[in-house]
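Morning. Coffee machine broken again, so started the prediction first thing and wrote up yesterday's gels while waiting. Chain of 125 residues, entered below exactly as on the submission form.
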Amino acid sequence: MLLLAGCTSDGKRTILIEKRMEDGTYGDYEKVTNKEKVSAAWKIIEEANWENMKAEMERPPDYRFGFSYENAQSEAKSASYSVWITVEKESLELSQDNVRYVHLNKEDSNKLFEAITGTALSEVR
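Came back before lunch.
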């Protein structure tokens, strides 16, 4: 069951992204506030074919992100997402709170990566 709440007219949904650094730590990477990008990312996450399983990957995630709600009336709990770029750099694998997993198709991978990083997946080196 996905526990993320939709955006209300009282608040604004944003995406907070962290990137894995060369030393293995994570640092703030981006805060996405553009409504269209946030909505595009939300739609992909919401419509993905999630499997209920723990993702056991060979390396730590390349990115981590979560949706944040700017709403003075309440604090909404957001799920945390880990993102791995595949070796071929053609698609993304995601884990939600380390209990759900999905390997996105190329189209959704490209759209999500562009929404959260502002960069095309094909430009990753």
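The CA atoms of residues 6 and 32 lie 16 Å apart. Going to sketch it on the whiteboard this afternoon.
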